[in-house]
Design brief:
Blueprint lengths: L6 E3 L6 H4 L8 H19 L7 E9 L4 H11 L2 E6 L2 E3 L4 E3 L1 E7 L11 E7 L5 H10 L2 E2 L6 E4 L5 E4 L13
């Protein structure tokens, strides 16, 4: 195992009161704003002498409509990306999910562009109290994901992932 990881963090400045005004889907204006910040963050990280091994984007940071563009950024920089995605909505059944996407470039951990990436989603198990109230008022029902994800990152060790309020229940990962 290596002694340390190089992490890149990209924090968007999404305004929740504007982004999710009427129902749990990010507005087009906030989606575009978030995507500009994400692109800029990737540009800054790609200009580093040694790009990070992992890039983290927080819960709900990435609008779903930009998933394919996120994959392209990941392939180019060669870092594993763990990105919180906007709410997934099943309008027919009025079900809402909160997921993050893990993207692993084909050539990782080599710092080279990759033509392909492997991906998987993991979901949130528990809503924060304020979030539960807001979602409840939207008419959607939250679909909890009880799956625990650990993956083998080779010389970087085993990595566990969870979303936001699930850290309050981190002992179940032990």
């Amino acid at each position: 195992l290596i002694d340390y990881l190089q992490l890149g963090l990209i924090q968007t400045t999404t305004n929740a009161q504007i982004a999710w005004q009427t129902y749990p889907k990010m507005t087009a204006a906030e989606s575009d704003h978030a995507w500009r910040e994400i692109r800029q963050g990737f540009h800054i990280l790609s200009e580093m002498d040694v790009p990070p091994q992992f890039i983290i984007l927080p819960e709900l940071a990435v609008p779903l409509c930009f998933r394919s563009r996120l994959l392209a950024l990941c392939r180019n920089i060669g870092s594993i990306v763990i990105a919180g995605m906007d709410y997934t909505l099943d309008h027919g059944n009025k079900i809402l999910g909160n997921q993050a996407l893990v993207i692993v470039p084909q050539r990782w951990p080599e710092k080279q562009a990759s033509e392909q990436c492997s991906t998987f989603y993991f979901g949130k198990t528990y809503f924060a109290p304020a979030e539960k109230t807001g979602i409840g008022q939207s008419g959607f029902t939250f679909k909890a994901d009880q799956t625990i994800w650990l993956f083998d990152a080779g010389r970087f060790g085993r990595i566990g992932v969870c979303i936001c309020y699930d850290f309050m229940d981190v002992e179940r990962y032990m």
